[in-house]
Each structure stands twice: as structure tokens, then as C-alpha cells.
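Can't attach files on this board, so I'm pasting raw text. These are the components:
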Amino acid sequence: MVLDNQTQNKTATGEKKAKLNVGVPRALYYYKFFPFWHEMLTRMGCDIVLSPPTNKKILEMGATFSSSELCVPVKLYFGHILWLLENKPNLDYIFVPRYVSLNKYHYFCPKFLALPDTVRNTVKPKIPVLEWEINAKKRANIESAIILGRKIGIEKEEAGKAYIYAINRFKQFQNLQRKGVLFHDAMHRMYPRLVKKKRKMRNKSGDEEIDKNYPITILVLGHPYNTYDPLINLNLAERLEKYHVNVIMLEQLPEETFKKRVTINRHFHNYWNMEEELLQGARHFLLDAKDEIDGVIFLISFACGPDSLIQELIMRDFKKMKIPFLDLILDEHSGESGMVTRIESFIDMIRRKKYRDLIETK
Amino acid sequence: MSKLQVSFPNMGNCWVAFKTLVESVPDIEVVLPPPVTRKTIELGAKYSPEFVCFPFKVNIGDFIQTYEQYGIDTFVNAIDCGPCRFGFYHAVQERILRDLGYDLKIIPLDQADLLNFNWVKTFDEFYKIMGVNDPFKKFFNTAGAAINFLRKAKITADFEKLEGYYRCRELSRGDTSRVLRQALQSLDEAKTPAEIRESRKKGIASFKKIPHDTEKDPLKVTLTGEIHVTLEPYVNLDLRKKLGDMGIEVHQNLSLIDWILHKFHVNFHRKELERKAEPFLKLDIGGEAQWVIGEYIESNQRGLDGFIHIYPFTCMPEVTARSIITAMDDPKIPAIFFSFDEHSGVEGMRTRLEAFIDLMEARKRKGSNIKPIKKYREQKSIIDHVIANHQNPIENILEPMGELVNIASTLNPLEVIGNIFSDNTSKTKPETKETIEY
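---
Top answer:
C-alpha cells for the assembled complex are below.
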């Protein structure tokens, strides 16, 4: 905390120019790394302007703008950027991170690798794109933070300090998530100004009593931008809670789960970053905590490259272990009723299987 | 001892080169997979994940058909550890096929960075299976295989370039295809370095003999995209042949050797393309994305008539490249994009292609505003390019190396060293062993 005060004082005294307005689209890795970006950028003297939670209009803008073969999350990203450009004319920068790798073994999906380039060359915004390349194969993360600082006129030392501060805050946020606070609530706790509290879903349906007395636990796998974006997954987490299902998200698993690398077969390790976490989570439940879950729901966006293969592997493993598995494919056309039916029947099936003896005696 | 039979999935004309590579291991016989047909694709699509990229599905179909028709259970498949899906192919394919009840083994050929020499591991695995322990033999075998592979891949690429030149000019349709087939056949039969040189010479000569219209000035088109889709004719609905038959000269830099040289870090043309693409895409994101953008810019600079980009449906890097190309501002040549999957139909494609050709013809008649830049103003035709490359570095360096390795591999080094240090009398000893006993 000593460090905090020092840097704060410095920026407060040394800064004469107005704060930079940096627009951040509320899509893709917003749902994973936003606290980190926020602390970094505010430390560096920027004001963050977030786009609103995804709504129908943003989805439509993104879907009509981008190439039809892209996956929905990326289409949404374009939608958010277009919204920012349209509605926030006083932005100085648009923040588009380029995630290449977080450690030397892994890559992100190619679409993330090219994200600033695609934004710059297809959207062609009049506002400059503030690019932040995180590439652990090439340079240390702190160095990339310093490069980011240089772009917006921040001294080396301050940028480094901002990075360290942001890392610590991000760890706090992750701990909050590990305690079982879902992303949205955790965000609300940390940044009440930016993230409004969610309204509760109403009109509970189904057989309340049975649901309450016979709880089940479901693991929700998927990329954070699918599992936490309420529009694209049609409020999955809340919907499950409504049926008295305990939801386990990947972010809630203990830190040790994510330490050992995943081996696919005798020759070969996995090389995608996000998929590594999915596989590690799946491995945790396949080997160590098989009895803790009753079923798995895998959220996968249509045309997602890495997931199309990873999902196949995970599905086969869970099938072998006889754990029920449901994959929901998300795209911009997904209708609510079809999805709800599938989820409901999946839950009913698990509940009947688990409490077979009890329910039958009734 | 019966020979071990090995196979690999289809990828156009690359079988010639891959066959030499695998067959270099003693007592291994390569069985070529049946050509890709409708049935292959149906089988592949049936057992693959729903929206995995198309080459994955085709490969699965290849594996199943080869296994069922010829009973082969050992396969080689290349892998890459880049950011795109290609690296996962063999792992997931093996898993799927095993679960289906096919007891087969897929041996990966690591080509993420060829200077790491991880690809040698594939050979090690084969040597282990075949029980070859002599390190000298292993070394010379592998070196010879690599050299022959590179040469044959280069010659195949040359032939394909000539094919692009001659097919649009040939007087009786089908000559070029026939000549290409024969040339590849003779290249496949060539084993020693001298034979390979001979078959290259013969192949080029037979291309030159094709009766063709020398005066013709056809439309010139760049064809590029994802490597499997571009090279495998059934998958891309034989686009190269279609274009040639419609009288269009196909310029295609993409080939197996182009890729392999890139992986050896000596492909200078690709480095040039990377420089051209840099303002639009800063780093290699897998697939061919960066070079596709580079090729597009280069074909603009060359003043060609059109650009065709083909890729499998939902291919991550290529879709990115496509969206960048379509959004470019500069005055530019017309570009058309085809994405292929198991549902792609011939007629829809032909219609689009005809419209595209009409567009190019109209532009040409009107006089295109895109002129070649100074560097490319005096461009040679493809044929000059190939024949000028007759003294190309690959041939020049690798042929003598191949000869050397060939000679070295026939010697037994232990024996050679032994002979130096021992008396001449000991030489006679091994001969007595060779008396034949019945």
C-alpha cells in the first residue's frame, strides 16, 4: 500500500494535462482481464469509458458489419467498438489488447493475435487504436506494460509500478472469484461506478419444492466471454440458479488446478491458452473431484476454432466417466425457447438419475 | 520379413515427395491412400466434430478408407505447433478413430520449426519399429531422405507452375494434365540423385512439347489460400483445372516446397511478402494469413488481372485475412473468395467464377488503371521463371549433397575405420562368410 500512495501522489502532482479518455469494448477478454486493464490504465492516468452490456442493437451492428464466418464473440467485439465510436465522440483512444501468449508454451486463438490489426484495417476508426501486445514468447509482461506507457506518455518507472499494482489488484479480483462470487457481482463490488448491479430474474417456474429439496451441481465450461455475457448465453447462470442448481464456473476452482500442463497424448501438449484452462478444469473433475459434479454444460460459440477440437476431447472423456454432458452452441440466431428446453430437460434428467430412489418412493 | 506398410493422407501432388521421405526407412513400403472422393468426404464429415475445419474431415475420411481398403494401421501426419488448429489434428483424429474401433497409429511429423530438427523424431520412431540401431545408417538414411524430399518437392512445384502456364494455352484439351501425370510418375520412379535430375529434365522437355498457342495473352490470376485446400484438387473442386480450361493463366506460389523452405527460414519470397503485409497484419497468426495479404499486395504491384483466395470454412487465420483484404482502400484488382466444406457444390462455384471472369475481361478491355510497378514491369512469364531457375540453389546444392550421402550410406564407417588401422589380411575374413549354404 505504501507503493500505492507514492505513485498516486506522483501522478497527482506531475500531471497537468487532461485525463485521456480510453474506450474499452465490453466484450471478449473484458470478461477475464478487465480489472487488470482498468487498474493499469487508471494508474497511467486514463479515464475508462466502457460500452454498455451487450444488447440486441450491438449484436445486430456487429453481425451486419463483420464477415459472416467469424464467431459471435468477435462479431460482438466489433459491435461494441462501433457503439463506442458512434456514441462517445470525445474518446482519445480505443483500447484493443493483442494477446499472443501469457507464457512460453501457449498461444491465444489466431483471432486474438490479429485483433488490433483487424480493428484498425476493417473498422478504420478515426480515433487511434491503443494496442497492447502481451507476448511472453518475446518479452516479459512488465516490458510490454512499459511499451504501453510510452504510447500514452508515461514514464518507465510509473508504468512498471502501475503494472505491479494492477497485477496485485487482479489477484484480489481472482481470489474474489475463487470464493464463489460470479464475475458480474465481483465486478460490481470492485467497480460500482462502471458496473451496475444486475436485476434479479423473475417468474420462477417449475416444481419449486422438488427442485429445492433435491439440489444438483453443474459445471459450466466455456470461454469467459460466453459464460458471463448474459445476452449471448441467454442468462445461463441465473437460469440454472432458478432451478436450484449449484453452478461451478472455471474461475471458482482452486489455483493448484491450473499449475500442471495438460498432456494430450504421448507426443503432444496442448498449445492454446484458454483451452488449457478448460482442459485443466475438466481434468480436475475427471480425476480428483468426480463426485462433486452431476453434469457438465459446455458453452461453445459457432465457428470457434479451438473449441471445436477441445470440446470433442472433453466430451469423450466425460462420456467415458459416465458424467452427463451437454454442449450448447451459441450464435447470433440462437432462440431462447430451444435452448431453455434443452437445459430444462438436461437438468430433469440429471435430477431423476441422482435421486432415483427417493423420487420413486414418493 | 514382411514389409511394414505405411500411409499418409492425400494432399494433391505432394505424395511424390512424401513417399520418398517415408520410404527411405529400410523395409517400409508406402501405400498411397485412395484418391479423395465424395465418399471420403461423407465419411469424414460423419465422424468429425461439427465445425472443425475441412482438411480435418478429409483426413479422417482418408484414414478410414485406407484402413478399410488396404488394412493399413500406421499413418504419418504432419503437425504444427502454431496458433491454428492444424497442430491438434493427429491427436484428435487418433482419438476419434480409436473410439470408432479402428486400431491404428498416427505418427506425427513435427514441422513447427524445421531447424529444431524435431522431425527427426518421426524417423526415430520408425527406426525403433523396424529395429534399425546403427547410428551411421540412421544418419545417412535420414539425410538422404530429406535431400530427396526437398528436391522432389521443388520439382513438383516447378511442374505445377508449368501446368498453370500451359493449360490455358494448350490446343487440345487434356494434354497438360496427361503430361503432368506422366512427369510425376517418372519423378516418383526416380530414386538416385542422377535419376531425379534426369526426370526433371525430361519432364520440362515434355511440357515444352505440348502444342500450344504462343501468341495468346490470357488473363492472369493469382491463386492462393490455405495449403491443403489449395493443393488437393478434389477438395477445391479442381479449381486450377477449371481456370485453365477457361483460358486463364494461374500464378500460384504456394506449394509444399514453398512452405518447407519457409519452415527452414530460407524462403526469401515469403519474407518479402511479410514485409508487404506488415502494415495490415503484424505477425504470423497461423495458416497462410500473412502471406495471403502479402500476395494480394504483390499481385496488385505486378498488375495481374485478379486474385482468388480459397480456404476451408471457418478457418480462423484465413477468415481474418479475408476481412482485411476486403476492407482495403487502395485501387485494387478484383478478388474473389471461396470457402470450402462438405456442402460446397460445383454449379454455384462455376457461376460465381464465370461472373468473376467476365468482370476481369471487362476491366482488361477497358484498360486497367493498375499498372505493374517498376520492379515488376519487365516480368518474365512463368515458363522463363521455371527454366531460369534451372540453376536454382536447391538443385545446385542438394544434388551433389545427395550424391555424397548416397555414396557414404553404402560404406560401413566402422569397417572403413577398421581398415585403416588393421592389416590388409583381415579384409579377407568377411568374404568367407558369404559362402551360400542350402
